[in-house]
Amino acid sequence: MLRLIYTSHVQPPVDTASLLEQARRDNHAKGITGGLAVLDGVFLQYLEGEAEDVDALFTKIGRDGRHRDVKVLERRVVDRRMFADWSMATLEWTEETRNIFCSFSPGTALDLYQTDPTTAAPMFRAWAATSAWKN
Q1: Is 90 exceeded by the pLDDT of residue 120?
Q2: CA neighbor of 24 nearest in space, from 83, 76, 79
Q3: d(CA 83, CA 70)
Q4: Are 116 and 105 in contact (CB under 8 A)?
Q5: How are strands ordered across the β-sheet holding 133-134?
Q6: Could you give the CA distance from residue 95 to residue 76 in angstroms, rounded to a whole number?
Q7: Which of 1, 99, 103, 118 falls 20 to 30 Å from 30 in CA-CA distance?
Q8: For residue 30, what are the CA distances in angstroms to 11, 24, 39, 48, 97?
Q9: What is the per-residue pLDDT across 8-48, written as a single tens digit (0 to 9) for each?
Q10: Phi, psi of 8 (to 5 degrees)
């Protein structure tokens, strides 16, 4: 099982609803699960699944014109899924989710592209414990 977390700038225009619908359909077929945070023109995404499937999806993302400045924050083998029940859930921004981001990035602006690679997975874990997800 592979976990890959990346961030990228959104290349407008992007229909996020259509993007999510496609991701949910395609990810489900490939056994990929995860979570997506979108804020101020930046994607922060957590993907998990079999290594070859996650790597193939990430290669596709890197070629997708809706993303620019794609940056891997973490690529690691893991024992189990964090988002086992979600083909792709999206984070809703609430006071709680903003506070979680700020607790993992003290003293920095709320800029997903500047997410610290060492805290990306724990931050997603903290977000996963909230009810701020749309699946």
Answers
A1: yes
A2: 83
A3: 22
A4: yes
A5: 67-77, 2-10, 42-49, 33-39, 89-91, 133-134
A6: 30
A7: 118
A8: 25, 10, 27, 11, 29
A9: 998 888 787 888 888 888 888 899 999 999 999 999 999 99
A10: -155, 160
pTM of the complete model beyond 0.85: yes
Residue 72 · residue 45 · CB < 8 Å:
no
Residue from 94, 93, 89 nearest 48 by CA: 89
What pLDDT does 116 receive?
93
- Tell me the residue type at 15: D
What CATH number belongs to 2-134? 3.30.70.100
Domain boundaries, the chain: 2-134
Q: Average pLDDT of 50-58?
A: 96
Q: What is the DSSP letter of 92?
A: P
Which residues in 16-36 are b (16+ Cβ under 10 Å) and which e?
eeebbeebbeebeeeebbbbb
Contact 122, 33 (CB under 8 A): no
Contact 61, 9 (CB under 8 A): no
- Per-residue pLDDT at 98: 94
Taken in order 82, 87, 91, 96, the sign of the CA dihedral is negative
